Amino acid sequence: MRTVGVEEELLLVAPETGEPQALSAAVLAHASRYGAGEDVFEKELHDQMLEFATHPQSDMADLHAEIVRCRAEAARHAGEIGCAVAALATSPLPVSPCIGMGRRYQWMAEQYGIATREQLVCGCHVHVSVESDDEGVAVIDRVRPWLSVLTALSANSPFWQGGDTSYSSYRSRVWGRWPSAGPTEVFGSAERYHRCVADMVATGVVLDRAMVYFDARLSQRYPTVEIRVADVCLHADTAALVATLARGLVETAAREWQAGQEPMEHGVSLLRLATWQAARSGLTGELLDPRTIRRRPAEGVVQVLLEHVAQALADSGDLDRARAACAELLGRGNGARVQRELMKRTGRLREVVVECVRLTQE
Fold first, then answer.
1. Are 141 and 188 in contact (CB under 8 A)?
2. Is 80:26 a contact under the CB 8 Å cutoff?
3. What percentage of the chain's residues is helix, strand, coil (to nearest 5)?
4. pLDDT at position 297, please?
5. Are 71 and 360 in contact (CB under 8 A)?
6. What 3-state DSSP class applies to 95?
7. pTM for the predicted model, two decimal places
8. Nearest to residue 209, comparing CAs of 195, 197, 226?
9. CB atoms within 10 A of CB 281
10. How many CB atoms lie within 10 A of CB 316?
11. For residues 34 and 166, which has the higher predicted lDDT (pLDDT)?
């Protein structure tokens, strides 16, 4: 059975005011000194962010439990130095991002200017194991149309610099400013994939292969396909659902490849429209059906995704749980809907952040 790992980026905030805090170095130092011997936390581009990575898991209940545990550990270490963690993909409150001092981050600041300074956004990356680069690229080619649905499910960034953006996932719009970000063409082979990446690096526009930010890519560190389209999810159970569906997509795509089924030929221009629509509406309103790239109510598109991966999920024992989790998410709403409802009820973005700190650890 394919293993799955999750990387989550969390926002560091003041527990009483909700304002972002540039304290990642202090939190990491505390985790290194007082952690349980597990090096799961990492620094990110901005000092107001903290990242963790789970271990690879084959059981989705175990993965969910580890996400909950890592969030709790992040909260514990942050609390010891006077801040809190929030699973928010953008800061609802105004913020002046602080770029880290590493050589790589400084290169990015010089190369990309304001696009780097404004990249205080938190995502969720899902790694799913593959047998080879050939299988991995075949998977990348076949999951392309389905990834926008994961963006809609995870959408958790309606606010930006103190105002409502009218988007559900504004993070994905900010992330799209990187020159290498977004959907890809059909590669057809691992050789063509690697040649494309090498040509991109050779331009000098990106620093290295790790800065090729495709929506789905071969990982540089692990034998995995890395799916990078999700906002960090407000609720841990949503993150586990996104990971479950990602594994279902990878397994389904691998089976299609083995059976000789060609990938859908939707062009990058259409996939960008699907991504934009998912970022705009989330689970409210309409999405573009991955098969036809035509509008359809969001709930219907989620059901289409479930049907597409149903056999893979049934074989891994995840189908009933995924169906129940999707139904719960559609009823409760994604993080964007929860944030807006909190804002409507309280009238203060500060209260939105404070409540999201609590929800992060549920």
1. yes
2. no
3. 50, 15, 35
4. 98
5. yes
6. coil
7. 0.97
8. 197
9. 21
10. 20
11. 166
Which of left, alpha, beta for 83 (phi over 0: left; psi -120 to 50: alpha)? beta
Cβ neighbourhood burial of 203 (10 Å; 0-12, 13-18, 19+) = exposed
Rounded Cα distance between 109 and 128, Å, is 31
Report which residue type is found at 359: L
Q: Quick: pLDDT tens for 70-127.
A: 999 999 999 999 999 999 999 999 999 999 888 999 999 999 999 999 999 999 999 9
The closest of 126, 157, 300, 303 to 226, measured between CA atoms, is 126
Per the DSSP assignment, residues forming a β-bridge with 13 are: 20, 84
Task: Give every CB contact of residue 203 below 8 A, 6+ residues apart in sequence.
Answer: none
DSSP state of 6: E
Helices (H), 161-296: 170-175, 190-202, 236-258, 268-281
| pLDDT exceeds 70 at position 38 | no
Q: Which candidate, 69, 20, 88, 60, places its Cα nearest to that of 355?
A: 88
* Cβ-based burial of 304 (10 A; exposed 0-12, middle 13-18, buried ≥19): middle
Rounded Cα–Cα distance for residues 50 and 284 (Å): 29
To 10 degrees, what angle do helices 335-346 and 349-360 make? 130
- Indicate the DSSP class of residue 218: E
Q: Which residues of 92-122 are buried (b: 16+ CB within 10 A; e: fewer)?
A: bbebebbbbeeeebeebbeebeebbbbbbbb
- How confident is the model at residue 32, as a pLDDT? 87
Quote the mean pLDDT of the chain.
96
Contact 40, 52 (CB under 8 A): yes
Query: Six-digit token pair at 76?
Result: 């514990």
Q: Is the pLDDT reported for residue 8 higher than 60?
A: yes
Q: Which two tokens stand for residue 201?
A: 């690096």
Beta-bridge partners for 93 = none
E strand or H helix at 7: strand 4-13
Contact 133, 218 (CB under 8 A): yes
